[in-house]
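Trying the structure run again after the queue cleared.
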Amino acid sequence: MVEIVPAKHDRLAKLESFFGQHWQKQDRKDELYQYGRYIKVKGTSCGFFALVPFGEKEGQLRTLYLTEAFNPGLIMVMIDWIKEDAQKNGYSRLWVESKDQNRETLFKTWGFEKQANPQDQQKKWWTLKLELSTTVDKSC
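Done. Tokens:
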């Protein structure tokens, strides 16, 4: 069973502990705490993502962090969990900044398209229009 749990339901110290040594590398930590979500599989936190407001009815997938405990077989359905959460927050589009080729491959696989962002044209951006036509299965 998969649960998506807001980070702000716990203390900030738990989020810091979850990221471990990677916590210091994170920008705008307050946004991660406010907008972040744990991915819990069978009660264990093994992933994290943050959907930060990014314009009118749009969100930015700011952070995607997976622990070694995350089952790689769930990577493809994870985007459905993220999209479902984004739609619950009223977003009709997601933006994500690309920082390396490996992530771009994942974004392409998930259906994102490369697109210039008028807010920040110095970086590589990908976007995904949110269309969720089926119920998301979280019984994995």
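The chain has a mean pLDDT of 87. Worth checking whether this holds up in the mutant runs.
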